[in-house]
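To close the section, here is one more complete example, presented without commentary so you can practise reading it yourself. The ligand is coenzyme A.
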Amino acid sequence: MTLTPSLRNDRSLQSPRHIALAWSASQRMSLIHPTAVIDPGARLGTGTRVSHFAHVCAGARIDADCMLGQGVYIGNEVSIGRNVNIQNNVSVYDAVTLEDDVFCGPSVVFTNVFNPRAAVTRESNLCKTLIRQGATLGANCTVVCGTTIGRHAFVGAGAVVSRNVPDYALVVGVPARQIGWMSRHGEPLSLPLKGDGIATCPATGERYVLRDGVCALAVEVVA
Ligand SMILES: CC(C)(COP(=O)(O)OP(=O)(O)OC[C@H]1O[C@@H](n2cnc3c(N)ncnc32)[C@H](O)[C@@H]1OP(=O)(O)O)[C@@H](O)C(=O)NCCC(=O)NCCS
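Output:
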C-alpha cells in the first residue's frame, strides 16, 4: 500500500507517526498500531498488521495479510511475500527476502554482512539471504547471510544456520544440522536423511517422496 496523493500532499501528515495514524484511520485494509513508524514510500499490502513500536523503512515491500510483531524492524531492501508472520523483536535487514507463508519466531536474527568490521564500510557489498515459501524459523535462531532456507524447511529454536537448508528439512543446533524432515503442515516425516523413501503427513495425509536425498510432495514429482 502507498499513500494516496491527497494524504501524501498533506503537510500535517508528513511525520512517519502521523502517516501511520492516517493509514489506520482512513484505510481499514491495513491495521497499523499508532506507535508504529512507517516511513513514506513503504508498501504494505491489504490486511497486513503492524504491532507496537515496529519500524518499516521507505524501500520495504510487504505483501498482503502479513503480521509484524512488536518491535519488528524492516529495512529498505527487503521484500516480504503474502501471509508472512514475523514475531516480536525481529530485525529484517537489507538484502533479506522472505517468500510467502514464512514464519519467523520471536527474536530471530538475520545478518547481511559476512565479515563485519566497525572500521570497514561494506554497505555496498551486502550478502543476500533467501527464506523460501512456507519455511519456519524457530525462536531465537540466527541466519548467517548468504544462505537459502528451502521451501517448508523448519529451523529449530536457537539454531545457527550457516549453510543452505534443503526443502522440507528439519535442522537444529549450532551449527544447524539436519535431523529429519517436516511436512508442509509442520509434522515430522518418517524418511531417512539420505537416499530414497516415501512418507505420509500424519495430519493431512499428503504423500512425500524422497529421491536421491531430495524431498518433494508426491504430486510435484515427475514420474
Ligand atoms: C525442532 C522441534 C520442532 C522438535 O522437532 P521434533 O522432530 O519433534 O524433535 P524431537 O523433539 O523428537 O527431538 C529430536 C532431537 O532433537 C533435539 N532437539 C529438538 N529441538 C531442538 C532444538 N531446537 N535445538 C537443539 N536440539 C533440539 C532433541 O533434544 C532430540 O535430541 P535427542 O535425539 O538427542 O534426544 C522443536 O524442538 C522446536 O525447536 N520448535 C520450534 C519452537 C519455536 O521456536 N516456536 C516459535 C513460536 S512460539
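Once you have examined the C-alpha cells, check your reading against these statements. The two ends are 42 Å apart (CA to CA). Residues 105, 138-139, 156-158, 170, 172-173, 179-180, 188 surround coenzyme A (CB under 6 Å).
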